[in-house]
Structures are given as C-alpha cells and as structure tokens.
Amino acid sequence: MSWVTIRKDQILRATSIEYDILIVGGGATGLGIAVDAASRGLKVLLLESNDYAKGTSSRSTKLVHGGVRYLAQGNIKLVREALKERSILLQNAPHVTKTQSFIVPVYSLWQKFFYGTGLKIYDWMSGQWRIGTTKLLSYNETIEALPWINTKGLVGGIEYFDGQFDDSRLCMDLMKTAEIHGAVLLNYARVERLIKKEQKVVGVEVYDVQLKETFCCSAKVVVNATGVFVDHLLQQDTVDQAPLVAPSQGIHIVVDKKYFPGNHALMIPKTDDGRVLFVVPWLDKAVIGTTDTPVQSAQAEPIAFQQEIDFVLQHVSRYSKSPISKAEVLSVFAGLRPLVKSSNSGGPTSLLSRDHTIMVNPSGLITITGGKWTTYRKMAKDAVENALFVAKLGKKPCVTEHLKIHNKQQDQLYHALLQTEKGSEKLHDDYPYVWADVDYAVLHEQATTIEDVLARRTRFLFLDARVTWQLIEPTGQRMQLILDWSEEKLQEEINHMKELVSCYIIQ
Hints:
Number of strands: 18
Mean pLDDT: 93
Helix content: 25-40%
Largest sheet: 10 strands, mixed
Number of helices: 16
Distance between the termini: 41 Å
C-alpha cells in the first residue's frame, strides 16, 4: 500500500465524525490529553503540524524530577505535584523510565550543610512517593561515585534520587496508548484556522503538509496544546490577545560515556546565571545541560548559540579532571520552553514559573501551556476536566493514574518484524537499534520521514550526529521500499536530513 493511500485513509477518519475533543499539538501535553480523554471513553482527534515530539518534548534533559531548583524558589506546590507525578510515571512506564542517582559535589562545609539540608527536605517532601534516600557522602565516597570529578577543594558530596527517561520514545508510546483507546491522531496536519459558529469554536481547517490538501474537522471543544506556539491560535481567536508565552532556549551537548564513567549523574547546584546544570547518563552516553536563553520568537528547529555551547563546556569542565572540548561532542541540540509570561516579565526567563496555565476563551477555545515533562499527566487531566465542562460532556472520571503506557517491546507486531529478513540486524554496531525498529516506526508509529525515524523513533540524531549521517541513505532506502517513494522523493528526504544533521554537529 502506498503512503498516499495510507494518508488518505487517515484523513477520512479525521473528517468522518464530530469529535468530543479536538487537540491541536502532538507534544507531551497534547498526547497526554489524548490518552486521558480517550481512556475516559471520549471521541478524540489530535492534529500535529509537524511530527510528534518534534519540538520541546524531544529536547529535554531526560529527567523525571520534582525540581530541586523550584524548591529553592519556594514553589512548594509545583515540587509536591511533580514528585507525585514522578512516582506515577515511573510505575506506568517502567520500560522508558528508571530511578537515577545524582551526586552534588560540595567544596565547603557550608555547601554540604546548605545543599544537604535542601535535599533532605526534597527527600522528606517525597513522602509516600520517595524513590531513594538522600545521604551525605565523604570525600572518598564522592570520588568513588564520580571518579572523574575535579578533587581540588572537594569536601564531599550529597547523593539524592530522581527519575530519568527517554522523552520522544515516551511520546510515541503515548501516541500508541491513545490509539489503543480509540483516539485518532494525525501528524503533519497543520491547523490553519479556527472554524466558528455563533462566535463559538466548532472545528478547524487543516492543511495536510504531505498531500498538500486542505480539509476540515469538527469537534465539541478544541484544545490548544501547541507549547511555544500557543499564541498563534490564541491571537487568531482573539485578535488583541497579548502574548501568553515567553520562549526560552535551552541546549544540551552529548558526549561519550567514557568521559563520565559510572552510573551516577552530576548536579551542579548553581551556575554563573543561577541555574542548575546536569551531567546525566543516558542511553550509554552522557547528556550535559542546560542553558536558559530568552529568544524573540519560536522556531520549529532551534539552533544552539555558540555562547550557549561555550557556557555548558566551561561549566562542566570546572568539575571534571579532563576538560571536555568541542571536538568530543557527539551531538548538540536546542529546545524551547513555553514559559508563561508574568505581569512584570522583563527579567531573566530562569525566574519565570514552570507551572502550567489553562485559559478558556469566550469562544470555548481551551489553551494549556507552561508546565514540565514530569507533570504532563496532571496537565492533561486538568485540560480534559475543563474540556468536559466547556463541551457539556458530563462527568467522566480520570483513569490515567494507574493506566499502563504502551510498550513497543511487548507488541506482537514488533516481534513479528524482528523475525523478518534483516529485522534483528543492527543499523550500527555501536547502538542497540535494529531494522525492525525502522519498520515498526513506519508501519505502526506514523513515521513518514527519515528525520522521524532517526531523530525520534530511534535517538540516533540526539546521540551521535556523525553516525546519523552514515545512516541517512540506508534508512531512506528501507523506507522507500515500505512507502513506495519515488527516486525524487527519496533524494529530497536524504537532502533534508543531511541539512538537518549538520546543525547537530559542532563545526
């Protein structure tokens, strides 16, 4: 079956009925809303203008955490909420999450007391959701845990525990979970305008990026969950609507795990600009970040600024025996945070709230933004509760607190693909991904571009940009066989991916 036939069938499903809830945005928040609403028995449609998790949701620090920094800012409510949600996510998606040990190195007795007290409070606040016990470490224990640490002036350390995960992989599993519960989801479907009847939003006009066609979808309520892009729909609904979001950019660099041996992560409690910085083991590499740089406008593919790269390398090199150079960076990626503007915004974005905001317009349009990956489920629950009220759909209890998230590794369709020719063969000797991962992504996870496969269904682009470059053509050729691409389409895909990969390599 050609990709055109598959696409037309998807659009037919999206346009055939009036949905209870139509969600615009396929990141963590939008997908979470789709899972929540579909699992309550509602008719759900989700539309994403690019690919699922293309933006912020694939570019995190890979942490499921309560937010130690938010505790220091006095945001007790957000920390408590996030600690509970951390526990729920670890239970419901154990295949993409795990408990991670973090070490805070200290270089004075005062630091040991100050940070030790704060992390003990963080531990205590976890209560029934605790996943480990904070403890003070001696000089020798700290070196044993972090053999690469700079020992000059080192007094000891503090060990605490948080969660860690694969962000875009979780997004794909949320997409499949929503589908299992009856939701219809469509990527590369860009919402062009809101459709209104008697001043109320009743649907959307959509441009199909792949077929280059326009179609319309109707729903009892529309939810704007487009992250850093929420103002586009908001201002279309209300022309004089003031911008709700102040986008902030954060970057990460990825290096080989050999530079940071061991299983412990590092947390640097205070950078020069007052942030925290992490070095986190992730998929057999180390992710280092992040920054907080205000940007004027949101871009679908943000690029790391040179000063951000220098900032991260300089800070981590202060704590490492062997400074990390640009030549040792395997990949660098940037992401945007949808920070909700405060009434006196104008100061640093690092001080803006990470809590989420829900706005209901007179037209019935619901907008949700802000928040953080860890609290995606709670954000989704709050959004659906508002949608039920606006659409007069009655009370339908939320069931996601104990809802297991789809696990590809347990899917019979995936196991069948492993048995095919080359199915269990690795794409690259140094990485665990096999050709069945590519096939499954295309056949069952709506991957329609080389980027979809190498950036988000697998994590090659974020783990090692140069290896990704080697895989562009063989991956494209594999997809050509499945999707019946023309030679022209294949070359177009290869060229696009090469251009993208070059942005992840430090020149």
